[in-house]
Amino acid sequence: MLTEANLKQFTGTTQYYRHWLNFCYTDGVQFLAKEGQAYWLLDAIGSYQPQLRNLPKYQAFQLWFLVVGHEHPVIQPQANYQAVLTCWEDTPMVGVEPAIRQDIHYTDFPLAQVHLYWQQGVLMLPSEY
Hints:
By secondary structure, this protein is of the alpha+beta class. The protein has helices at 4-8, 27-35, 39-47, 49-52, and strands spanning 17-18, 24-25, 61-68, 83-88, 100-104, 113-119, 122-124.
């Protein structure tokens, strides 16, 4: 079962997993993908990397948010969408547009939101940073 408390237990990684889109991810991200049935999330993040490689400020670090529902104060899915995936240079702020925004019609992802860090080609949970 995937909960925020489960994710906070990951404070490092013992193994790196290789994704077919040529990036690595940590034990915590593997747990998130498996328990949340969210390998699609890894695919989505990986699919944007060629585009982000052309933006110098996103080459070394990226902050990814998946927000389900309308509870987040800054990140909201569009009308008739259930969730939104965004990539930011830094903490999301009103009036600042993300580098990437993908609205998602339907998801059964079990958490209201999840944050992921991308650093030097490795996707990780914030607690693993």
